C-alpha cells in the first residue's frame, strides 16, 4: 500500500558535505540561504523598530549597551547577533526577542479587526471558519472561529498524524464524531481529539452553532518527508 510518508536518509548519519557532490552541494547552499535569510530578517526588523521609536544608532547603542558598529552590522545583515546581544537590544526597544524574527507583530501585539478578517466559507454557505491568528507564516498552532448552520453536518479534513484539535462550543450545541464515536457538546463544553482520524461536526439544533478550535500541528520528524500533495490536502477548511 502506498504511504503518503516517504522514508529519507537520517540527517544524523550524513557525512560531511562534499561540495563536488550535487546533493551535498544543494544541502550546503540551502543552509547558507537560511542563514542569509535570518540575517536579513533580523536586520530589517531592527531597523524598523528603531525607526518607529525615532532612535538613532547612537541613542540605541547608549540604551542597550551594544556598540553602534555592531548595531549597524546587524541592520545591514552583515552579522547575526548572539542571543545575549539580541536580549540587550530587545530590552532597550521594549519588545520580545521574537520580534526580530517575525514578519508580523513586531511590537509583540497585532490587532486583527473582525470586519477585516478573512473567512473561509463552504460552497453551500452552511459552514465557515475565521482565522484568529496572523496567517502570513506557518504556525505550530492555529486558532479558528467556526460557525455551523442549524442541522448541518460538516466533515473535517484529516490532518497529519500527531495533529490534535481542542474545540470549545461558545453558542448552541455540537455533535463531534470521531470514527464511530460521537460526543454531544453543550455550550461551554470542550473536547480534544486526534485530527488524523475521520471526524465531522454536526449541529443538531435549530439555530447556528459557534465554536472555537485550536489546532496543534504535528512536527514533521526529520526522518520523514511529507509529499506536497498530502500537505495541500491537509489544509484546514
Description of the molecule:
- The protein is α+β, with helices and mostly antiparallel strands and 237 residues long.
- It folds into 2 domains: 11-100, 434 Repressor (Amino-terminal Domain); 114-233, Jelly Rolls.
- It has 5 helices and 12 strands.
- The strands form 3 sheets. The protein has a 6-stranded antiparallel beta sheet, with no helix packed on it. A 4-stranded antiparallel beta sheet has the order 5-10-7-8, with no helix packed on it.
- β2 (119-121) and β3 (127-131) form a beta hairpin.
- The longest helix has 31 residues, at 22-52.
- It is elongated.
- The two termini are 27 Å apart.
- The model is unreliable at 1-32, 222-226 and 230-235 (pLDDT under 50).
Helix/strand layout:
Elements: E1 6-7, H1 22-52, H2 57-64, H3 68-75, H4 83-93, E2 119-121, E3 127-131, E4 141-148, E5 153-155, E6 164-171, E7 174-178, E8 181-185, E9 190-194, E10 199-202, E11 209-216, E12 224-225, H5 228-233
Antiparallel strand pairs: 1-12, 2-3, 3-4, 4-11, 5-10, 6-9, 6-11, 7-8, 7-10
Helix pairs in contact: 2-4
* Structure classification: alpha+beta
What gap, in angstroms, lies between the N and C termini?
Answer: 27 Å
What oligomeric arrangement do these chains adopt? Answer: single chain
User: Looking across the biggest beta sheet, what order are the strands in?
Assistant: 2-3-4-11-6-9
The CATH architecture assignment of the largest domain turns out to be Sandwich
Strand count: 12
Strand content: 15-25%
Could you list the spans in which at least 5 consecutive residues all have pLDDT below 50?
A: 1-32, 222-226, 230-235
CATH overall fold name of the largest domain: Jelly Rolls
* Gyration radius, rounded: 23 Å
Q: What is the helix fraction of residues, given as a range?
A: 25-40%
| Mean pLDDT across residues | 80
How many domains? The number is 2
Amino acid at each position: 500500500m502506498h504511504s503518503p510518508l516517504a522514508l529519507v536518509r537520517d540527517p544524523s548519519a550524513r557525512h560531511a558535505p562534499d561540495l563536488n557532490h550535487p546533493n551535498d552541494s544543494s544541502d550546503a547552499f540551502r543552509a547558507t540561504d537560511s542563514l542569509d535569510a535570518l540575517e536579513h530578517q533580523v536586520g530589517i526588523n531592527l531597523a524598523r523598530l528603531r525607526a518607529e521609536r525615532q532612535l538613532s544608532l547612537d541613542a540605541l547603542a547608549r540604551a542597550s549597551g551594544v556598540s553602534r558598529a555592531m548595531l549597524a552590522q546587524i541592520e545591514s545583515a552583515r552579522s547575526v547577533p548572539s542571543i545575549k546581544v539580541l536580549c540587550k537590544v530587545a530590552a532597550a526597544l521594549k519588545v520580545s526577542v521574537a520580534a526580530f524574527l517575525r514578519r508580523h507583530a513586531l511590537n509583540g501585539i497585532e490587532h486583527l479587526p473582525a470586519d477585516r478578517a478573512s473567512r473561509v466559507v463552504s460552497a453551500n454557505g452552511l459552514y465557515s471558519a475565521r482565522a484568529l491568528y496572523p496567517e502570513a507564516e506557518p504556525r505550530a498552532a492555529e486558532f479558528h472561529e467556526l460557525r455551523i448552520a442549524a442541522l448541518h453536518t460538516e466533515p473535517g479534513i484529516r490532518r497529519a498524524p500527531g495533529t490534535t484539535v481542542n474545540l470549545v462550543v461558545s453558542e448552541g450545541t455540537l455533535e463531534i464524531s470521531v470514527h464511530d464515536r460521537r460526543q454531544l457538546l453543550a455550550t461551554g463544553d470542550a473536547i480534544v481529539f486526534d485530527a488524523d482520524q475521520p471526524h465531522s461536526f454536526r449541529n443538531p439544533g435549530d439555530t447556528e452553532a459557534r465554536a472555537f478550535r485550536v489546532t496543534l500541528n504535528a512536527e514533521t520528524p526529520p526522518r520523514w518527508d511529507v509529499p506536497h500533495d498530502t500537505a495541500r490536502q491537509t489544509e484546514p477548511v
